[in-house]
Structure formats: C-alpha cells, structure tokens
Amino acid sequence: MLQQIEELLIAPTTGDDAPSLARMEDTLTEGYAKALALEAERWRLERRLGEVARAVDGPDVSSLADELSSLANRLSTADGELSHLRALLGSLHERARTLRMAARS
Q: Cα(16)–Cα(48) distance, rounded to whole angstroms?
C-alpha cells in the first residue's frame, strides 16, 4: 500500500503517464481502510498491554515481562506505520484535490 501511494506521488501530474483521478481515489480508499485496520490493531495491542500489566503480580512474571516487551515493540511499530501512512495519505489527498479542481476549470 505504501509503495502504491509513493508511486502515485512521484508520478507526473500531467500527460499520458499521469495517474487518473479514479486511480488516486481508489488508492486513497484502500489506504484509509489500511489506516483503520492499523488503528484497530493498535487498540487490540493497547488492550492486551493493559491486561498483561494488571497480571504482573502473578507467579509467571518472567513470561509476562517478555510479552509486555513484545507488545510494546509491536505497538511502536504500528504507531510508526500508521504515522507514515497518514502522512502519505495526506499528500495523496492534496494531490487528488488539486487534480479535481483542475478538472473543474
């Protein structure tokens, strides 16, 4: 998904090689769906982090610490991916908006 967006952003804005508005809008739709999926994954990870943190007083503290570390790493990765995706989607949204305005003129 990120590669598709990046390709659209570096493509020419005019001419035969310029991507169509429909292609940009389709990619935006897919990108927004991906962002929602990443946000859902973040929510699941945060919920699990809370569950594991509340269980730290139990007898299996070592494995819980490992799981906490793993969850924190996965959450950090998801945050980075989501941030990058949102930035690219913002740029593509602006490009599509500009193309829409040019088509109306």
A: 49
